[in-house]
Specification:
The complex is a heterodimer. By secondary structure, chain A is mainly alpha-helical. In chain A, 78% of the residues lie in helices and 0% in strands. In chain A, α4 runs parallel beside α6 (150-174). By secondary structure, chain B is mainly alpha-helical. A two-stranded antiparallel ribbon of chain B has the order 1-2. The chains are: A mainly alpha, B mainly alpha. Chain A binds chain B through residues 91, 94-96, 98, 143, 146-152, 154-156, 158-159, 162-163, 166, 170, 233, 284, 287, 291, 325, 328-329, 332-333, 336-337, 340, 343-344, 347-348, 351, and chain B through 31, 33, 84-88, 90-99, 102-103, 106, 211, 214-215, 218, 221-222, 225, 263, 265, 268-269, 272-273, 275-276, 279-280, 283-285.
C-alpha cells in the first residue's frame, strides 16, 4: 500500500509538472497565432516574434531588468501570497471564496481611509484592513449559509467593489493631495536606501506573507480546528458525524479567509506600489495560485511566486503583445484552468487508491 | 415616462427568456452561473456578424442567429465541462464558470462599440411608432419567452429538458439519455442568453457592456431563485427587477428621484441590491426537486 501511495504522489507530481509546463507552452502557441494574425508573417517568423517578444520576456520575469523590476515582482508576490492563502484556506474546507476580490477591495479601502484620510500610523491601518476584510468575509460566510449559491456571492462581490470604488472616488476628491498615502504612513521598507533589492515597495508586509503559510500549515496540521477544517473539505457528512459544526466552520473559514484577503489589500495599498494590483486581478491570480498549489499552504508560496514572476514577465512583453491583456489571460485564465485540471487529476488518483484499499482483503 | 416603460420592457425581454430557460437546470439544484459568459460572448459574436458585407436586413438576421448559436455553443461547452467534474460540486462549478467567463469578458471588453456598422445595425433593428423608437429585439425577446414556455411545458421535447434538469438519473432510466437531456437545457439557456446579450449590446447602456451584461444575467438568476423555480412567479420577479433596472437607468428623469438627493451610485446598485436580498430571502439549501416542489 505504501508503494501505491508513493505511485499516486509520483503521478500527481508528474502531472503538476505538466500543468506548470502547459502555462508557457499554451501561451507560446497563442502568441504565435497572434503574431500570424497581427503581423501577417509566415509561421517561422511568427514563431520567432512570439519567442523574442513574448515567451523569453515571460520566462525571464522580473530578472535581468534591474533592481526596480525585481522589487516590483517581490512586492506583488507578497500580496498574491496572502490572496492565494485566503483562497487556499477555503479550498481546504471544500469552499470556494468567490468574494475574495471584494474582501481585498475592502482591505484596500480601510487601509487607505486610515492612512490617507485619518492619517493614522501604518500598523493601525494594517489592523483596520485585516478587521474590515474579516468582517466582509464573515458576511460572505453568512451569505453562503443563508443562500448556498455562488450567484449571490458574485452579486455581493460586485456590490462591494462598486461601493468601494465610489467611496474612494468621492473621498479622494475631498482629500488634500488627491488621496495619496504619505510615505510616513506606509509600511516601512525591509531594507535601507532606495536602490537595493529590499527597498520600497518590498516592505515588512512581504515578510508577513512569507510567515503566513507556515503558521497556517502548522495550525492545519497540528490543531484540532485545522483537522476539522480538512475533514469538512474531504467529506462534509463525515465531518458532521465527527461533531464538526459545518455552518459555524463555514463562517469561521470565510472570516479567516477574509482577514487574509483584507491583509493582502492593506499590505498592497500601504507598500507604496506605484501601480497596485486591482481587486479582480488579485482575486483571479490568487485563485489560480491556490488551485495550482492544491490548496496546500506551503505550495502557495511557490505558486504565488510563480504567478508574480509571470506577471512581471508579461509587463516586459514587446509589440505586438499587450502586456496587461496577457497577464489577464495567463495568470487569470490559464493558471486557474491548469490548477483545476490538476485538482481533478488528484481527486481521481485518490479515488482510485481508495478503491484499491477497499478491494484489498 | 415613455422611455422608462420602454427600458423596463426591454429589460424584461432580455431577462424573461433567460430566466425561463435557466429554470430546468435550476430545479435540479444547478444554477446556471455561466449565463453571464454566454450573454457576453453571444453579444460580442452578434456584433461581429453584423459587420459582414451583407444587406442591412440580412446582416441583422445573421447577427441574431450567430449570437444565439455562439451563446448556445458556449453554454454547451461550459455545461459539458461541468458534467465531467469529479471533485466538489461548488468548487469545480464556480471555477469552470470563472474560467469560461474570463475570455468572454475580455472579448466583450475589446469590442468597445460606437462604430458605424453598429449604428447601422441599430437603425435596421429599430422601428418608429408614434414618435417612439422601438427596437425590434423587444418583441423578439417577448416572443422568444412565450416560445420557450410553450416548448418547455407543452411539448415532449420540453419534458425531456425538464426531466434532465430535475433528475438526470431518472431521465436516463426513462431512456432519454443522461447527457442528452442535460445538454438540451444548456443549449436552450445559452441560446436565449446569446440573443439577450446581443439585444443588450445594441440597446443597453453605452459603454461597459461586459459588466452590465453580467449584471443582467445575475438578475435573471435572482428572478429564478426568487420565483422558487416556478414560471409564473419567475415572470413576476423578472418584471419587478426589470422595473428596478429601468429605474436605475432613467433615474435622472424623475423629479422625485432628484428630490431625494441620494448619491448617483445608489440608483445604479439598486436592482442588484434587490436581487441579492431576493436570493437571501428565498435562499434554500435544497433544490425544489429534493423538496418535491410543484412546478406551478
Amino acid at each position: 500500500m505504501r508503494n501505491e501511495r508513493l505511485a499516486v504522489i509520483w503521478r500527481v507530481m508528474w502531472r503538476a509538472a505538466v500543468c506548470l509546463a502547459a502555462v508557457p507552452a499554451v501561451s507560446f502557441a497563442v502568441m504565435t497565432a497572434l503574431a500570424l494574425i497581427r503581423e501577417g508573417a509566415g509561421l517561422p517568423d511568427a514563431a520567432g516574434i512570439a519567442l523574442r517578444q513574448g515567451l523569453l520576456p515571460l520566462i525571464r520575469g522580473g530578472f535581468g531588468a534591474g533592481a526596480e523590476s525585481l522589487r516590483a515582482v517581490i512586492a506583488e508576490a507578497g500580496v498574491l501570497m496572502l490572496m492565494a492563502l485566503s483562497v487556499a484556506l477555503c479550498l481546504r474546507a471544500g469552499l470556494l471564496n468567490v468574494g475574495a476580490p471584494g474582501q481585498y477591495a475592502v482591505g484596500v479601502c480601510a487601509a487607505w481611509m486610515c492612512a490617507a484620510v485619518w492619517e493614522l500610523p501604518w500598523f493601525v491601518s494594517v489592523a483596520a484592513s485585516a478587521a474590515a476584510g474579516a468582517l466582509a468575509g464573515a458576511l460572505f460566510g453568512w451569505m453562503r449559509r443563508r443562500s448556498g449559491s455562488a450567484a449571490a456571492d458574485v452579486l455581493l462581490d460586485a456590490l462591494i467593489l462598486c461601493a468601494v470604488y465610489a467611496v474612494i472616488q468621492r473621498v479622494s476628491a475631498q482629500t488634500a493631495g488627491g488621496g495619496a498615502i504619505p510615505e510616513a504612513r506606509q509600511i516601512p521598507a525591509l531594507g535601507k536606501g532606495t536602490d537595493g533589492y529590499l527597498a520600497r515597495p518590498v516592505t515588512w508586509g512581504v515578510l508577513a506573507a512569507l510567515i503566513g503559510p507556515l503558521v497556517l500549515w502548522t495550525v492545519e496540521k497540528f490543531h484540532i480546528w485545522g483537522y476539522g477544517m480538512r475533514l469538512m473539505g474531504a467529506s462534509g457528512p463525515a465531518a458532521e458525524y465527527a461533531g464538526v459544526n459545518r455552518k459555524r466552520m463555514t463562517v469561521l473559514c470565510m472570516t479567516l479567509s477574509g482577514l487574509l484577503a483584507g491583509l493582502g489589500g492593506g499590505s498592497g495599498a500601504l507598500s507604496g506600489m506605484a501601480q497596485g494590483i486591482s481587486a479582480a486581478e488579485a482575486g483571479l491570480d490568487g485563485l489560480g495560485a491556490a488551485l495550482l498549489a492544491g490548496g496546500h499552504p506551503l505550495g502557495v508560496l511557490l505558486s504565488s511566486a510563480a504567478a508574480a514572476h509571470l506577471r512581471g514577465g508579461c509587463r516586459r512583453m514587446g509589440a505586438p503583445y499587450d502586456g496587461g491583456l496577457a497577464a489577464w489571460l495567463i495568470c487569470g485564465g490559464l493558471m486557474p484552468l491548469c490548477g483545476w485540471t490538476l485538482r481533478v487529476w488528484r481527486m481521481k488518483a485518490e479515488r482510485r487508491l481508495r478503491g484499491k484499499k477497499e478491494e484489498a482483503p | 415616462m415613455t422611455e422608462f416603460a420602454l427600458t423596463a420592457l426591454l429589460c424584461l425581454a432580455v431577462l424573461l427568456p433567460m430566466a425561463w430557460s435557466a429554470m430546468p437546470a435550476g430545479r435540479g439544484g444547478a444554477l446556471h452561473v455561466g449565463l453571464a459568459g454566454a450573454m457576453i460572448l453571444g453579444g460580442w459574436a452578434g456584433m461581429q456578424a453584423g459587420r459582414l458585407p451583407l444587406t442591412p436586413a440580412q446582416a441583422a438576421v445573421c447577427a441574431v442567429a450567430v449570437s444565439g448559436c455562439v451563446g448556445a455553443l458556449y453554454a454547451l461547452a461550459a455545461g459539458s465541462l461541468a458534467a465531467l467534474r469529479h471533485t466538489d460540486r461548488s468548487v469545480s462549478g464556480a471555477v469552470i464558470n470563472l474560467v469560461f467567463a474570463l475570455p468572454a469578458l475580455l472579448m466583450g471588453g475589446v469590442n468597445g462599440g460606437g462604430t458605424a456598422e453598429e449604428t447601422l445595425l441599430r437603425q435596421t433593428l429599430t422601428v418608429r411608432w408614434q414618435e417612439m423608437e422601438i427596437s425590434l429585439l423587444l418583441p423578439v425577446g417577448l416572443l422568444l419567452a412565450a416560445a420557450i414556455a410553450a416548448l418547455l411545458y407543452a411539448t415532449k421535447w420540453g419534458i425531456g429538458v425538464r426531466a434532465g434538469g430535475e433528475n438526470p438519473d431518472a431521465a436516463a432510466e426513462a431512456g432519454l439519455g443522461r447527457y442528452a437531456s442535460q445538454a438540451k437545457g444548456w443549449l436552450l439557456a445559452g441560446l436565449t442568453a446569446g440573443i439577450g446579450g446581443f439585444s443588450w449590446h445594441l440597446n443597453g447602456p453605452a459603454g461597459g457592456f461586459a459588466l452590465s451584461a453580467a449584471g443582467m444575467a445575475l438578475l435573471a438568476l435572482a428572478a429564478v431563485r426568487g420565483g422558487g423555480y416556478r414560471p409564473v412567479r419567475t415572470l413576476l420577479w423578472a418584471a419587478a427587477l426589470s422595473l428596478l433596472r429601468a429605474l436605475s437607468a432613467c433615474a435622472g428623469q424623475f423629479s422625485w428621484v432628484s428630490g431625494l438627493q441620494w448619491p448617483e451610485e445608489t440608483w445604479l446598485l439598486l436592482p442588484y441590491a434587490a436581487a441579492l436580498l431576493l436570493m437571501l430571502v428565498h435562499g434554500k439549501e435544497k433544490s425544489p426537486a429534493q423538496r418535491s416542489v410543484r412546478e406551478f
